[in-house]
Amino acid sequence: MEDLQQLRQKNLETIFYPKSVAIVGTNKVKGTVPHDILDSILKADFNGIVYPVSPREKSIKGIKAYKYVVDVPDDIDLAILVFPSSVCHMALEQCGQKGIKSVIIISAGYKEVGEAGLKREQQLVAIARKYDMSFIGPNCLGVINTVPETNLNASFAREMPEQGNIGFLSQSGALCTAVLDYASAKHIGFSKFISFGNKADISEIDILYYLMNDEETKVILMYLEEVSDGKALMKAARDVIEKSGKPILIIKSGRTDEGASAAASHTGSLTGKDEICDAAFEQAGIIRCNNIEEMFNKAIAFAYQPPPKSEKIAIITNAGGPGVLTTDAAISTGLKLAKFSEETTSILKKALPATANINNPVDVIGDARSDRYLAAINAAFDDADVAGVFVILTPQSMTDIDTIAADVARIAEGQSKPIYTSFMGQKDVASGIDILQTHKIPHYILPESMCTAFQVVYHFNQNVKTKVRHLSALDNIQVELARKLMDKVHANGRSYIPEVETIEVLETYGLPVPQGKLASTADEAVKIAEEIGYPVVLKVVSDDIIHKSEVKGVELNLGSAKEVKDAWERIHSNVKKAMPDASITGLYVIRMIKGSEEIILGIKRDPSFGPVLMFGLGGIFVEIFKDVSFGVAPLSRDEAMHMLEQTRAFKILKGTRGRNPRDMDSIVDALLRLGQLAVDFPEIEELDINPLFVLDKGQGSVIGDARMILTKTV
């Protein structure tokens, strides 16, 4: 980490574990933020010294108040600023003079209100840098640390949450209060709870690194409204997962992108912000969630139970229908039903009535009481093929719900296998659910949620947490030659770069370029065709024409000199009719490729994540079928292959219905080289290779067409 990052980590420790806190700008008016912050700290039984700072009051809640923070005679670890934004900078300046290094700025009225607020925010940052201070906020709810030796509720949340091993951080303070209320009802506890607001100084990246080393935190949850530095977020997530093994679950709002204008390339029009976010999160090992309920359904599975060693589950139920529903949900999410051993079957046969189903799923029958559940659950846990147990309960008149819930909690203690529950219903099962949640047994309203949570935990522990990322070294890359070609393009002041020049650049990075040349006359086109061999393709080359097929500027499968000359005339005639003012540089003559699959590769520059690669089904229908996937450059070989696997085109490339398998290794290689090109040349805004003709396995691939769009200023 850099010095500033190290400073923030040190000061974050004091934010979470202060021995003394000053509430700067507090008052006696109940129901106001300045009052309620002080009230929250006192109600939580903070294990430190509290100093109210209020220009108008001599004491608040029986505690001596100081006019200014510099008047406090003792050292202060943490200052919480609740003054109006118009004077907050003066209070922060005094904190610096006092030697306070850690600050939470609750006050609003900064960049969220416009340009004037942004200037006030920048003023805060300048003061913090001057005194080596670090601050969370402004415009935030505050910070909570539930560890008993601290008991810090430096927020205006209604109540202190239960202690737990989940760390939660959010850009939205309002969402924080909703999350705390949701969690309280389900007895979900937190280790640290952070509202970081405008993140003018300390950001979510800093907090991720802090929670990585926090012994109290086992799972990290985050709500983001914007990803300001996607590269840093991906790196932080990879570091957290690799070094601590802690899962990161994120809700990122703004899935829709209304008003996005169509781009000049296929890649530009197909690459939405949310698709990039999905790809980047998955690539970094982040688990993306759609809403609070989904996030906590997965979080409690990570936080409460040991991870499963396989995808094989046992289902215990007292009703056939819910057992079938859970089975269907399990199979559809990739789980498997465990096969019981003869010993397990024998135990179940003895313990359950003759009408019970002793196969998996186990139906203990509707009149079952706790003894049958107890026998079935124990037998399932003891079976070697079972990696986890699902307990389903429907309330019958004889069902001793609370006893069964208590038994489940007792059995789960000390187990190396996870147990998940679904007590179906609402009123009758409420007390049983409360027992389960109090004892940290994951409970789910729907079987689908239970199965998804199990699968996510298994996948993370088996695949994500253990994955080692290797970036391949690439040969045959001529960076200096590529730079000369790009400089030549820049000298002409153009942003749209047509096919011939784009292919020249791609060739310097070892991509499979076609045999062909640019022709300025029909006779020259014939000469080139005879040199490279028939059949050939003719394509118009013009700075004014982006989509050649739309102006009938492409002629395929030309097998003789006469066909080439006739095609030459047709193309010029077509272009003149469609775009009379277009300037034609010439026609590109290339060898016709037959017997291949057409795919598309592309580059798109994202303002947060940087260069993003696209792969998908190519040709003229790419924007209709939209069978595409994305990855953030640079890619590892495994990540590039995963991009292929995510699409329907993958099955075609593997070979199906008598079709030969195609050379997917050449696609992976092309993606890696495109990624390196995008990293080396940040002026590339968009780039399309469409199509890339993929030949049979072992025979490589060939670029069919390509174009590039550069930023106007580099």
Shape: flat
**Into how many domains do the coordinates divide?**
4
- For the record, what CATH class of the largest domain applies? Alpha Beta
Number of helical regions: 24
| CATH-assigned fold name of the largest domain | Rossmann fold
Distance between the termini: 29 Å
In the sheet with the most strands, the strands line up as: 9-8-11-10-12-13-14
Specify the CATH architecture of the largest domain: 3-Layer(aba) Sandwich
What is the percent of helical residues?
25-40%
Total count of strands: 30
Contiguous runs where pLDDT drops below 50 for at least 5 residues? 258-269
Question: Which structural class do the helices and strands define?
Answer: alpha/beta
CATH superfamily of the largest domain: NAD(P)-binding Rossmann-like Domain
Mean pLDDT: 93
Question: Can you put this structure into words, describing what you see?
Answer:
By secondary structure, this protein is α/β, with parallel strands linked by helices. It has 4 domains: 3-217, NAD(P)-binding Rossmann-like Domain (Rossmann fold, 3-Layer(aba) Sandwich), CATH 3.40.50; 306-441, 3-Layer(aba) Sandwich (Rossmann fold), CATH 3.40.50; 479-591, 2-Layer Sandwich (Dna Ligase, domain 1), CATH 3.30.1490.20; 597-710, ATP-grasp fold, B domain (D-amino Acid Aminotransferase, Chain A, domain 1, 2-Layer Sandwich). The strands form 6 sheets. The protein has a 7-stranded mixed β-sheet with strand order 9-8-11-10-12-13-14, sandwiched between helices. Helix 7 links the parallel strand 12 and strand 13. Helix 6 (204-212) runs parallel beside helix 7 (230-244), helix 11 (320-332) packs parallel to helix 16 and helix 17 packs antiparallel against helix 18 (499-508). The longest helix is centred in the middle third of the chain and has 18 residues, at 447-464. The two termini are 29 Å apart. Mean pLDDT is 93; it is low at 258-269.
